[in-house]
Structure formats: C-alpha cells, structure tokens
Amino acid sequence: MTAPGRRRPAHVLANAPFRRLWTAMSVCSLGDWLNILALTALAGNLMRDDYRVQSLAIGGVFVAKMLPAILLGPLAGVFADRFDRRLTMFAADLARFAIVLSIPFVHSYQWVIIATVLVECINLFWVPAKDATVPNLVPKEQLESANQLNLLVTYGTAPIAAMLFAALSVVGDLATSTVPFLAGRDATGLALIVNACAYLVSAFLIFTLRGIPKRDGAISTPSVLKQVIEGWRYVGGHRMVRGLIIGMLGAFAAGGAVVGVAKIYVGALGGGDAAYGVVFGAVFVGMALGMFFGPRLLRQLSRRRLFGLSITVAGLVLVTIALVHNLPIVVMLTVVLGACAGIAWIIGYTLIGLEVEDGLRGRTFSFLQSTARVTLLLVVAVANPVAAIFGVHVLELGEFAYQFDGSNLVLVIGGVLATAVGILALRHMDDRKGVPFTADLLAAVRGERLGTERAEHVPGLFVAFEGGEGSGKTTQARLTAIWLRDQGYDVVQTREPGSTKVGMRLRAILLDAAERGLSARAEALLYAADRAEHVEKVIRPALYRGALVVTDRYVDSSLAYQGAGRALDPADVSKINAWATGGLVPHLTVLIDTPPQVGLTRLGGAADRIEAEPLEFHERVRKEFRALAAAAPERYLVVDGTQPPEVLTRQIQDRIHEILPDPVPRESEDATGTMPAIRD
Ligand SMILES: Nc1ncnc2c1ncn2[C@@H]1O[C@H](COP(=O)(O)OP(=O)(O)OP(=O)(O)O)[C@@H](O)[C@H]1O
Ligand SMILES: Cc1cn([C@H]2C[C@H](O)[C@@H](COP(=O)(O)O)O2)c(=O)[nH]c1=O
C-alpha cells in the first residue's frame, strides 16, 4: 500500500541545533586525526637517534591513545547519562585546547605521552555525551541520516587531515628554517596549534548550542559504580543490543587484522608505500560509499538482517583478499570490505540510538567504544607476532607455486571470525523469523518486501496508534481525528478490540479480569478474529471510499502483547494476523512510547485482565513495540509519551501532515456536493 501524496521530509541538516553540533563534530574530528598524525610524527622526531627506540616511541603514542578507553570508557558514559551534556562537551573542548596547545611548547616525549593520555581521557567524556545528544536533537525517523553524517565526518576528515598535515609540515619546515625565532623548533608544532584551535572552535559552537536536554541524574541510581555495572549488565542482558555489539566488535576485529598486517601484506604483493596508501584509502572510500548508499540499496530488507548480512559478506571478502595475490583486485575488494563495514556501523549506531532508552544510551555507546578499542588494540598487537611466527610457506603444485605467509593467515582468521560473528548477529537479532532469509534478500533486491507486508493499494489513508497501557493512544487518536475532520476530511475513528458487534462481545471476553484461564493461543486467535471482523466491516470499506481511518491499536498490539508478552512465536502471530487482515498494513503507525511504570499509574479504575499482568510483561511489550518501529522506520513515528499531550499532538500532526493528500479541488466538491474525500 503506498502512502498517497507523501512529501519528502526536510534534510536533517535543516535542523539548526543538529547542524551546529555536526559542525562541532566535524571540526573536532579533523582535529583528532591531525592529533594522531602530529603526535606520532613528533614522538618519532624526538627519538630519531635509534630506529628501534623511534618505533617504540611511536608505538607508545598508539598505546597511550587506546589505554584510557580500556580503563575509563564505561565510567565516562555514566557522565554522559548523568550530567548536562552541553557543559560536559564544552568543558572537554576547553581542556583539550589547553593540553594540545601546551605540547609544542613543552617539547618533551614524556609530556607527549601524558598529554595524549589526558586528551584521550577527555575524549571519552566528549564522545558519549555527543552520541547520546544526537537522538535528542533529531526526530527518530531522521536518526539514520544523522548517523550517516556523523560517521561521514568521523572518517571523511581523515584524508583531509592527512593533506592538511602535509601542508602544515611544509609550512612549518619553511618557517623554522627562515624565521630565526623559530629555529630548532619542531615543524609538527604548527599542526598541533591548528589541532588545538579546532577544539576551541568546537567549544564555541557547543556553548552556543541550545536544546540539549539536561540530565540531572534524578532518574539514575546514586552510585556511579552501580551505574557502570548496570550499563554492562544492560548490554549483556538485552538480546538485540548484545547481537549488535557482537557484530560491531567482530567487524572491528576484522578491520584490526587488516590494519595490523596491511603493510607487510602489500609488500608481499610487490607494492611499496604508495600501494599501502592506496589500500588504506580504499578502506575509507568503501566505508563512505557503504554509509551513504548501502542502507538505501536494500530498503525493503529489515535493518537487522542487513546488519548481519554486511558483516558476513565483509568476512567472506576478507578471506578472498587473503587468498587473491593480485594487487588491483585486492584494492577493489578492499573497497567492498570498507563498504560492508560502513553499512554495519551506520546500522548498528542507528539501532542503538533507536532501541536503547535515553538514560542508558550514553553507557551503551561508551561501552561499545571502549570494547572496540580494546579489540582493536588486542588484534593489532597479536596480528604481527602471529604473522611472524607463521612465516612464509610455499605450496608447490607441479609448475605452480602458491605463497601463503603469516599475513595471509591473519587475514583468513579475521575473515572467518567476521563471517561467524555476522551469522551469530543474524541469529541473535533476526526480527523476521519465519521469513526465509534468501527469499527475503532476493525480494529486497527486486525492491519488494516479502511476507505479510505486501502492498495493497487503497485510495484512503490508514493511520494506527500503538503503545502500552495508558500511553496516551486514545487521547491522541481522538485529537488527530478531530484535527483531520476540521480540515474537511472524511475520518473514521475506530479501535481494537471491540469496534464491531462481534468485536464488542470478544472484547468483553478478552478483557474480563475473571477470565483467568484463557490460553495464550486462544487469546491471540480471539484478537485476530476481532481484527478480521474490524478490517472487513469497518476499515477496508472506509479506506476504499477514500476516507482516513484512525485506529487505536492494530496488528502491532498482537505482536507485542501476544508475541512478546505471552511469548508466542512471533512468526505464528504475524501469520494469523496477515491472514485475518488480508495483509492490510497502515500507511503510518504512531507509537506512543511510554514506560509502563508511567502508563500504568495513569489508568483509573480496576485493572482489566491484561493491565493486571506483572510489570515485566508490560516491559516486554514496550520493547517489542520499539523493535517493530526500528525495523521499518519509514512506516513509523515514535514519540516519547512522557511529554505533555500538546507536544505529542504537534509532533503527530507534523508527521501526518507529510502524508496527507492534497486537498480535493473545489470543483470536485461542487460537483459531488459532499464533504471532500481523499483521492489518490
Ligand atoms: N501525554 C500525557 N501525559 C500525561 N497524561 C496523559 C498523557 N496522555 C494521556 N494522558 C492521560 O493518561 C490517561 C490514559 O490516557 P489514554 O486513555 O489516552 O491512554 P491509552 O493509551 O489509550 O490507554 P489504554 O489503551 O491502556 O486504555 C488519561 O487519563 C489521559 O488523560
Ligand atoms: C488489539 C490488542 C489489544 N490487546 C490488549 C491491550 C490492552 O490491554 C487491551 C485493549 O485495551 P484498550 O484499553 O482498549 O487499549 O487489549 C492485546 O493484548 N492484543 C491485541 O491485539
């Protein structure tokens, strides 16, 4: 079913607060890459007498860069969740500015290492605060675009920083050799000063940024340690997040294997430093392509499936890279590898933003970042010794000789690991159980969505309101219907269960608190029976005459309550409902996302049979609603139900406005003499 008259939403960068944050991120990212290049170069220059000492000195900078994440990562996330994120970022930027600026003036290796550790500690506060802020500034349906832009500047600034560094080094060399006052100074100082200034610019941008909600810690438990443990526990205990983290870490480990042995591998293929640079650049080009085009390529495939698929393909490509001894082909495959990694990262970040609640998002991002760095450090540290121990082996097959050395082995191991992790993530997170993967993928390649959600074209517009108990659906559905009627539309406001004669009797059975022994399957079938009647007698006729149908609950309620709540197989619940509704899917589902603790306390009177279920039941229901919305963001509007009703009404009206058809021309109204109906 296509949404009639749907208008394109404004680009995410049209959102002024997000644009400002994004600019700050871009400047910081450029500064960060410049920082790596300048510090490693400076460390090498300070210890240039002995080759081994010089290598160790540069290695020391890398270790100093990674160590704080291992030790302090989760703690920093707690700050992002507890304190005013704007102030955290502002203070962090000022501190980074001062520390980096001091490095060229102190000019000692010890200070390079101490300053690196300090800057990295500060980064651990800045980054989770920023990551947790993005979903506060952009609507959920634009989160994917926002994350694409964030990742673009995170990696896209690397080649720019490399060019800038080269230019600044030339200028620095010129300055130190011509200006007497600067004689004997290190040319990298100029890059560090520019790096410091980048942080200062970011501080200014963040300071002038309004609209970041304050976190005062009131919703958190008081002990910092407890919060850290809770964050770690949350990641392990949340099936979907666990799958995501496993997948993203697997992709990181595979990437680490490449970084670790790329230099010797390219050398073995006969390439020099330039070829090494080309392979390095190919990863970034691929990542950029993957982030921008990947999610758009298979729009009909569930995001979770695409996530697992991209990691699995990345693993297989890596194994191929290891076995193909041809540099041009390796470069092309590296672009594909980078693209798969880019898709996995953008989807992973977006899913975390959508499915992890605000109070824990900072910790989840922080946990991911710190564990990703540990993984990278371990893999990079282990890759070269493993390659060296394995050595070079040549397989002689008659005339044909095939070389397989340590770098090939490391890449094969990395590839196999990524493939296994991709498959594991797919199994952990699959939200389309019962729909065969290959058929689903082939359908997505053809631009179709397989299974229950095949499009049915109807002239009207179908909007469903979903959410837990007391979330505010009835209030908002009613206000929406009034608003639409005021504009002259033919509106049918309805609800489930109980909008038909039979439905009313079914509702009485389903919600009667005395009906304790009803089996879960019978319950699911009764709700489906009510829905079949509802669709046939009320919804479909209204849609076919061109009306707007606003329903309070629909299929998602069964998937959430009977599927997740009663732990029935989601594929079964989906199937019986597809049959009951004839595959009719709303153009838009508004999910009013309200924590059950809040919603249940809003209800008055005696609890009905479902309301009387324990809190864990309602929490499972909420999680499932959110997961359904995250799997098809283009068909959902998710609003935070703890906001005041009038704020929700505005958000809902803005979204529905986008899909409303153009008003019926006056001449048709004159001709029919009726209220305007919706036309396609
Ligand atoms: N955003 C809101 N903030 C605070 N209270 C609200 C909000 N929206 C609705 N309420 C109040 O909460 C109660 C439940 O609202 P409503 O009936 O709209 O919820 P519901 O989701 O339809 O509930 P249920 O389906 O469980 O009956 C009502 O008293 C309503 O006035
Ligand atoms: C449609 C549908 C509903 N339910 C549950 C959810 C609620 O507890 C009640 C309906 O009550 P409301 O006040 O009218 O929202 O029924 C369900 O479990 N499964 C469904 O498919």
Give the percentage of residues in beta strands. 5-15%
Rg calculated over all Cα atoms = 28 Å
Q: Uncertain runs with pLDDT below 50, 5 residues or more?
A: 1-7, 216-224, 664-680
Shape: globular
InterPro entries: MFS_trans_sf (IPR036259), P-loop_NTPase (IPR027417), Thymidylate_kin-like_dom (IPR039430), Thymidylate_kin_CS (IPR018095), Thymidylate_kinase (IPR018094), TM_effector (IPR010290)
EC number: 2.7.4.9
Transmembrane segments: 21-44, 56-80, 149-170, 190-209, 243-268, 274-294, 306-324, 330-354, 374-395, 407-426
Pfam families: MFS_3 (PF05977), Thymidylate_kin (PF02223)
Overall description:
70% of the residues lie in helices and 6% in strands. The chain is mostly helical. The protein folds into three domains: 13-220, MFS general substrate transporter like domains (Growth Hormone, Chain: A, Up-down Bundle); 221-451, MFS general substrate transporter like domains (Growth Hormone, Chain: A, Up-down Bundle); 461-672, P-loop containing nucleotide triphosphate hydrolases (Rossmann fold). The strands form two sheets. Strands 4-5-3-6-7 form a five-stranded parallel beta sheet, sandwiched between helices. The longest helix has 36 residues, at 143-178. The protein is globular and about 90 Å long. Adenosine-5'-triphosphate binds at residues 467, 469-475, 602, 641, 644-645, 648. The ligand Cc1cn([C@H]2C[C@H](O)[C@@H](COP(=O)(O)O)O2)c(=O)[nH]c1=O binds next to helix 18.
